[in-house]
Amino acid sequence: MSQEDAAKLEAHWSKTRTLMIIVMVIWFIFSFVVHWFAKDLNGSSFLGFPLGYYMAAQGSLAIFVILIALSNWRQNQIDKEFGFDEDE
Amino acid sequence: MKGGFIENLPRIYGLYTGGFIVFCLIMAVFEWMGMSSEVIGILFVAFTIVIYAGIGWLSRTMQVDAYYVAGREVPPVFNGMATAADWMSGASFVALAGGVYFGGHGYLAFVVGWTGGYVLVASLMAPYLRKFGCYTVPDFIGTRYGGNLARFIAVIVLVVASFTYVTAQINATGTIASRALGIPFEVGVWFGLLGILLCSMLGGMRAVTWTQVAQYIVLIIAYLVPVFWMSNKQGFGVIPHFGYGDAITKITELEPLLGLGTPGDAAFTAQLKAEGFKVAVLTTPHNGPAGTALSSWKFVTLAFCMMAGTASLPHILMRYFTTPTVKAARNSVGWSLFFIFLLYFTAPTLATLTKLQLLDPQLPTAIIGKAYEEVAALDWIQKWNEVKMLAINDTNGDGILQLNEFWMRRDIVVLATPEIAGLPYVISGLVAAGGMAAAMSTADGLLLAIANALSHDLYYKIIDPKADTKTRLIVARILLFVIGAAGAGVAMLQLTGILGAVAWAFCFACSGLFFPLVLGVWWKRANRPGAIAGMAGGFAAGSAYLYYVYTGGTPWIGIDHLRFGMIGMPVSLILMIVVSLATEEPDAETQAMVDATRIPKGDTILGSQH
User: Fold this and answer.
1) In a domain, A88, yes or no
2) How far is C-alpha B312 from the chain's CA centre?
3) What is the ipTM of this complex?
4) Scanning every residue of chain B, which has its alpha carbon at the shortest distance from the alpha carbon of A82?
């Protein structure tokens, strides 16, 4: 592997890693942080639901679906940028 | 039809869905013409199983890559449906809503955990494992870290986790088959196993994939239709999901008035237990997070174990080996979660609406606070009491049914909803078919994961690397049969209290496999001794802790037998890092392999036939 290739791999992986970390932070917030404070959140309401309940029954779930879609979209962009995407 | 099978998939499954709806309508007409509810139940279960078996037969194969990874040609959306069916077990289908009904906010940790895990699968695992080109999860471990020992330990963890899970599924197919077909449970178990094997034996992963898609369609229709119907009938609108907030507030107001929290009469509860009732009185508030550090800790630790378990369970991960490309694998995870989401955000809706119907004195369906004699005369109360899933007892003798005088099994929330709401019997038949589809599809995935690991990793890679294709595929099928029979044998012992603990499967899987899988991709420095120490140490620590709490040990800071992954995972991570750093770094070839795994472009690490 030439040095140029190695540098390209490194740069691609560094962007991929950054994306992964961002995704994990959002995941952490909606998996754990909001539910830790469920009781406090129940003081507010959303669509007529107590917010703490809403997040556990629907909110976090919907955010996970969207999070995967967005991160896939971004990862495909990164792969394309470095020419590492697959020929289809 | 023009074009190949794959191009025509939307059309084929569109026709199938239409056909299934027509079948339901025909059954409705038969019911109207006076056909008995028993016959309708039998027709529903029998018809769907025949269809699955037909798909299994049409997908038969003698190709190694078709058998192990469905020829790697499953489009993302269809793989998403197959994964959703693979994922949602008989327990999710019948018990999830009931869990929320009885467990309140604390139980929602399962709902969050079983969906959030897919974020880990998408970001950390699936695309990379797909690029690797492995047939099984131990195949990745064995190739990335090298050596038969690492592969062998991965096989052990996989077998223990999956077998714990599969007995519960076979048990569920037996229960549903026996109830719908009116046969004894022991016969039902073997009947269920026969259905499961018909779907998987001839075509391996290919057959399981296409039956799972068919099963997803049946199970999601069966879950959603009764909820929409019931909700519309009760005035919550056709799609109640976004508007049931008031119902929660109402339940929260009613709970103290109804004396929630008082346990049922101890003597009567003991009598029920002795008679074989698996029932309970509702005592947990519907929306009452305690707000203490311990209750929050318990919520997040349970959610975390379920998430990491999701990302380590081989029957789920292997579904992403079947897509045509890395990009497709990634997108497929998104579709999987979407299809799972449809059921998971319906379950709390169903639990809330059912609870309100039973509790709210202003609704005609309410039973709490009504005259005891009146409730005792209700059809559905009597029917479910006969099958030992429900009981009432006027303990205080005031002639009124109190909240703590009403015992029920959590499965009722799904199974009895059509009757509580007075829906036609066709809907109950549909629900039975849906439960059967959910249990069969999960059992199929799990059995195949176990049999494939044993046939590919243990037999072919370790015992007899010279075996030819035909022998390998015959061995794979024999193993499938043997493990299925073993699972059915254990399921017949009805040790559900122990083996039904689905959470254990997740904790076993994440204790042993989570970090070796993640670090295999994300940390080049991870090496063979580290992985072996991580797998063996994490799995042993988790299992030892499970033994400790299950035999009566005091749980450490609320980490009970459902959460033993919280012990296994840190041990696994620490051992893996320390041992990897203390030993030599992986050779240049392995490091190049990791580099190649990280980019979608290029050939898979392992050939398409290996």
Assistant:
1) no
2) 14
3) 0.96
4) B599
